[in-house]
Amino acid sequence: MKIICVGKIKDKNIISLIDEYSKRIDRTTFIEIKDSDPMKEGEKIIETLEKIKDKHVFVLSEEGREFSSIEFAQKLKKIEKEIVFVIGGPFGLSDEVKKKADVLFSLSRMTFTHEMARLFLIEQVYRAISINDGKKYHKT
């Protein structure tokens, strides 16, 4: 699984939490795109996506579909391709990037910083894997 994200995380506490979930998943690669403006970021994201073969792309966007944790786990379980998530920067994502999505995906109707979105996403991916593996992390 790959997570393409715009910008670096500066908060050491958030970095620590993301690292913890990443270790638990053990198969996640973060690809950071330098933040600039949405059009330049979009070009770099699309260029990065084109290098990944046989992929299923989730683009995080406030107008995207919301899933419950169980629905998200079921969705991920069905995908047999490389799963790629795209998280924009402070100014969002270009329409061109959104058009590359197999799924426009929303963590919430609320707006989060790109740093928090990265943390929430990796936690939900870990939760989905735990659900699919029958682990007790997710309380049903």
Account of the protein in words:
With 140 residues, the protein is of the alpha/beta class. The protein has a single domain (2-132), classed as 3-Layer(aba) Sandwich (Alpha/beta knot). It has five helices and five strands, in the order βαβαβαβαβα. The protein has helices spanning 12-25, 38-50, 69-78, 95-99, 114-133, and strands at 2-6, 29-33, 55-65, 82-87, 103-105. α1 (12-25) links the parallel β1 (2-6) and β2 (29-33). 24% of the residues are buried.
> What is the gyration radius calculated from CA atoms?
14 Å
Strand-and-helix sequence, N→C? Answer: EHEHEHEHEH
- Subunit arrangement of the protein: single chain
**CATH architectural group:** 3-Layer(aba) Sandwich
Helix content: 40-55%
Q: What is the SS-derived class?
A: alpha/beta
CATH superfamily: SPOUT methyltransferase, trefoil knot domain
The level 1 CATH classification is Alpha Beta
Q: Could you give the order of strands across the largest sheet?
A: 2-1-4-3-5
Described by strand count, sense and barrel closure, the largest sheet is:
5 strands, parallel
Short recap of the structure:
The protein has helices at 12-25, 38-50, 69-78, 95-99, 114-133; strands at residues 2-6, 29-33, 55-65, 82-87, 103-105. With 140 residues, the chain is an alpha/beta fold. It has one domain: SPOUT methyltransferase, trefoil knot domain (Alpha/beta knot, 3-Layer(aba) Sandwich), CATH 3.40.1280.10.
